[in-house]
Amino acid sequence: MSLTRADWERIACPVCDGEAFTHLFDKGGEPFVRCTGCGLVLINPRPPYAAIRAGYDSAYSAGYTRKAQSKVIRARKRVARVGRAGGRWLDVGCSAGFVVKAATEAGFEAWGVDIEAGGIAYGENELGLSRLACGTLEEQHYPDGHFDVISAYDVIEHVPDLNRFVAELARLLAPGGVIDIGTPDLGHWRVPRALSDWQELKPSEHLYYFDRATLARLLARHGLRIKHKRFALKPGLKVLVERQTSRAVG
Label partner for 179 (CA 20 to 30 A): which of 86, 188, 215, 217? Predict the structure, then answer.
């Protein structure tokens, strides 16, 4: 079915509910805008999510499995960095399951979920993982408060409904648990002055572009706060998240 611009979806800002945006530029035929209320950068309007989701196919997962050795090493570092010993771990957007494998090796009961069937098949057949699910996070219906650690590496910028996604993360987090999030950092000092030159701008793939303030504001809507932000030499926003307390968020 052929789609036209009239079929595209226009949304309110998922961080502040604002409906006023400043057009920044077009890239790949898609409009990048900035919310005038909170500063979130996003693609708006955007193609229907069914068309976007179709781009996550076996070729997309193959880009990860071709680098299996380096991905396993990176996954082990990520698991160690969280600083937890044992419990239940969920990796959202698990792709081929490298983080799930590393968490299992570290003594966790580890689960993974991803929308791409090829990655899930690799994790099951090549890594011997049994707790992988194909589909969205919301489709899995995991129990309330089930996970001590939830990781979402390079995921949040892809999801169609940010508030539904973060609400589900909050629902699944056990008391005292943490969420480890990684996403491109719009506020990083190495982001080009000409934003349209930034390599992380990916039409129909990265739908939103956060800095610390916009991510903290989104999390706060769902009772979560940034506990710690790690240093990143490359423009990545790497944060450990916990349930919000009476102290200021972010």
Answer: 188
87 close to 108: Cβ distance less than 8 angstroms: yes
User: Which pairing describes strands 41-43 and 132-134: parallel, antiparallel, or unpaired?
Assistant: unpaired
Look at residue 158 and tell me if it is in a domain.
yes
Global pTM value:
0.93
Say what the pLDDT of residue 146 is: 98
Supply the CATH number for residue 131's domain: 3.40.50.150
Query: What's the structural domain count of the chain?
Result: 1
Task: List, in sequence order, the alpha helices (H) in 19-67.
Answer: 49-53, 58-65
Examine residue 195 and state whether it is found in any structural domain, yes or no: no
Helices (H), the chain: 49-53, 58-65, 68-82, 98-105, 117-125, 162-172, 212-220
Cα–Cα dist 158/165, whole Å = 11
